[in-house]
Amino acid sequence: MRVLLHYALLVLHEEEGQDLVEYGLLGLFLGLAGLLAWNAIAAGIGTSYVGYDTGVQGLWEPRDP
Protein backbone atom coordinates (compact mmCIF):
# COMPACT_ATOMS: atom_id res chain seq x y z
CA MET A 1 0.00 0.00 0.00
CA ARG A 2 2.86 2.34 0.82
CA VAL A 3 4.43 1.76 -2.58
CA LEU A 4 1.16 2.58 -4.34
CA LEU A 5 0.81 5.81 -2.36
CA HIS A 6 4.41 6.69 -3.17
CA TYR A 7 3.81 6.26 -6.91
CA ALA A 8 0.54 8.22 -6.77
CA LEU A 9 2.31 11.15 -5.12
CA LEU A 10 5.16 10.89 -7.60
CA VAL A 11 2.76 11.09 -10.56
CA LEU A 12 0.99 14.12 -9.08
CA HIS A 13 4.21 16.07 -8.57
CA GLU A 14 5.93 15.05 -11.79
CA GLU A 15 5.79 17.45 -14.76
CA GLU A 16 7.26 15.14 -17.36
CA GLY A 17 4.03 14.48 -19.30
CA GLN A 18 2.55 17.94 -18.89
CA ASP A 19 3.20 18.97 -22.50
CA LEU A 20 1.44 15.86 -23.80
CA VAL A 21 -1.61 16.61 -21.70
CA GLU A 22 -1.62 20.21 -22.91
CA TYR A 23 -1.41 19.13 -26.54
CA GLY A 24 -4.18 16.62 -25.93
CA LEU A 25 -6.43 19.29 -24.44
CA LEU A 26 -5.58 21.67 -27.29
CA GLY A 27 -6.47 18.99 -29.82
CA LEU A 28 -9.74 18.31 -28.02
CA PHE A 29 -10.60 22.01 -28.02
CA LEU A 30 -9.80 22.41 -31.71
CA GLY A 31 -11.78 19.29 -32.57
CA LEU A 32 -14.86 20.52 -30.72
CA ALA A 33 -14.54 23.99 -32.25
CA GLY A 34 -14.27 22.43 -35.71
CA LEU A 35 -17.31 20.25 -35.07
CA LEU A 36 -19.41 23.22 -33.98
CA ALA A 37 -18.20 25.30 -36.91
CA TRP A 38 -18.96 22.48 -39.34
CA ASN A 39 -22.51 22.20 -38.01
CA ALA A 40 -23.04 25.93 -38.57
CA ILE A 41 -21.52 25.78 -42.06
CA ALA A 42 -23.61 22.73 -43.00
CA ALA A 43 -26.80 24.47 -41.89
CA GLY A 44 -25.92 27.54 -43.97
CA ILE A 45 -25.14 25.43 -47.02
CA GLY A 46 -28.43 23.55 -46.62
CA THR A 47 -30.41 26.77 -46.39
CA SER A 48 -28.68 28.21 -49.47
CA TYR A 49 -29.27 25.02 -51.44
CA VAL A 50 -32.98 24.93 -50.61
CA GLY A 51 -33.35 28.56 -51.70
CA TYR A 52 -31.46 27.92 -54.93
CA ASP A 53 -33.41 24.73 -55.64
CA THR A 54 -36.74 26.47 -55.08
CA GLY A 55 -35.76 29.27 -57.45
CA VAL A 56 -34.58 26.87 -60.15
CA GLN A 57 -37.67 24.66 -59.91
CA GLY A 58 -39.85 27.73 -60.41
CA LEU A 59 -38.09 28.54 -63.71
CA TRP A 60 -38.97 25.26 -65.42
CA GLU A 61 -42.14 25.22 -67.46
CA PRO A 62 -43.19 22.05 -69.23
CA ARG A 63 -44.21 22.27 -72.90
CA ASP A 64 -47.72 21.68 -74.03
CA PRO A 65 -48.19 18.24 -75.60
Give an account of the 3D structure.
It contains two helices and no strands. It is an all-alpha fold and 65 residues long. The longest helix has 42 residues. The mean pLDDT is 87. The chain starts with a helix and ends in a 6-residue tail after the last helix. The relative contact order is 0.05. It is rod-shaped and about 95 Å long.
Helix fraction, binned, reads over 70%
The helix/strand series, from N terminus to C terminus, equals HH
- The percentage of residues in β strands lies in under 5%
Computed structural class: mainly alpha
Uncertain residue segments: none
Q: In whole angstroms, how far apart are the ends?
A: 91 Å
- Overall 3D shape: rod-shaped
Give the overall average pLDDT. Answer: 87
Keywords for this structure?
single chain; 65 residues; mainly alpha; 2 helices
Provide a concise account of the structure shown.
The protein is mostly helical and 65 residues long. The chain contains two helices and no strands.
Q: In terms of topology, how is this protein built?
A:
Elements: H1 2-13, H2 18-59
